[in-house]
Batch of 2 targets.
Target 1
Amino acid sequence: MSLSGHHILVFDSGVGGLSVVSEIRARQPNAFLSYVADDIFRPYGNKTEAQLQSRLPGLLATCVKMLDPAAVVIACNTASTTALPPIRAQLNIPVIGVVPAIKPAAEKSLTNAIGVLGTPGTVRRAYVDSLIADFASECHVLLQGSTRLVAEAEKKLAGEGVDMRVIREEIAPLFAGRIGADVDAVVLACTHFPLLRDELQASVTQTVKWIDSGAAIARRLDDVLSDIPKRILPTHEQTAFLIGPETDAIRAKAFSNYGFMRTVGLQP
């Protein structure tokens, strides 16, 4: 018997979007999810705005034509802060992006000292500056960009050990000096980073709230889907499509842990 519901496409440069998938599945347990990882072009954090704006609208249009979802979740802070308007202009279905959780971090901080931990491509964007001006103007805000943490998250999901020395080195600037000593909330402004929450917490001595946007994205998706009629869902297994060569069994197991029982490699 065919089931009806909502088909959602989750897109990221790699495995980071799985942290968002967890939140979506918690709120939409009966939704059908497809996942696309742009493996061959990651990390997005070291790509220019022009490169991402040139690549992503056409790539997402192809994915939507291939999969026919009801909505798209861009589960990537860098992609959302650089290319969301042209992506939306290219597609005729709702597109939900990621907003770095600067507002809730500022609200939850008791010391008015917060950190923003993202990729270099996110933390240097004018969009982030605007969020800080709008929602954290009374806070000291320390910014730290890292692509090495993206690699560590990818390693963790592949079943490899995480290098705690890298974790400590990459986040050290957020906790340095007088302001750093007061930081009590850190925005995880890359969807890869919630996958390293335990390792991040183990690398600091002070009490820190690690705040990401996954739950907010899932709530926003709820609102969007409430206005979209349900359709007959695909009958094949929920699938992760990986653009590039990395479709080995270990990586497939990582995706299966998040409900994607089939992993397919797509040649660019």
Target 2
Amino acid sequence: MKRILTYENELEYDSVYDWLREKMHFPRSIVAALRSGEQDYRINGKKPVLWHSLAAGSRIQIILEDKDSSSFAPVQLPLDIVYEDEDILLVDKPAGMPSHPSMNHQGDTLANAVLYYYQKQGIPFVFRIANRLDMDTSGLVAISKNALAAARLKQMIDQRQLHREYLCIVEGVLSTDPHLADKSFAEIHYGAAGQALGGCISAPISRREGSVIERRVNAWEGQSALTNFEIVREGRRFSLLRIWLGTGRTHQIRVHMNYLGHPLPADYLYHPVYPGISRHPLHSARLSFPHPITGRQMCFESDLPTDMQKLLDTFS
């Protein structure tokens, strides 16, 4: 896939490098790719070294191109596209679809589906996902269509500018649980009547010894993790929560809810109890972020999936 960005600078700069870093805030990885020749550029139709001075009024072209397509195999699979432009692709991923191929999933992943979508158009494509979801987590996924968009979306995640909001069903009724306040890594918010409304969990997370996949709360060796939540709806057995992530640790929501004493049902790792749903009920419901190229604020939403809605209604 090829993307040409054209600019005209108003001021003089000591070097093209200074303009890239100081004015345009290009990530270091992209500047390094321009310097090495992995990506290309032109100044008034020519290609000076990056340390060459940049005159005011110069016409600058940044030429981003993926010369080799991804090694993943393109496979025709359902693909629910929410939004697409020259730089990003937003997809609503179904539950049960892995994001990337692995040993046990070579042709049934989101990457396979996206590559097929572009192969049909004759476009070479490298799969770069910004917010990877677990196989059984459904919802919104942002995919970059060029190296600059990918680098900037990664920066946004690191700087917490890409805001992720989830809908999650957990076991139990949180609003009247007297044990929530006993959790040392949780700050619970209460209403006037004394019922819990939501809270913030700051329990550090580490890999569980002896497991490649499983995580646990670990106050001594864990990485910092921050999960904010509010109670949206409660039934006889389950609570629907809205969750905002302050960090993006592996299995963060699942581990933090388990720590709180209200695990996700049908979670094969942390709570393998299956009361009418075959996967953990977690859905990426909202993504908001500045566009990685234009800076325009973007916001996308996805409705609660049918299986999660049915679980709530059954035990309401």
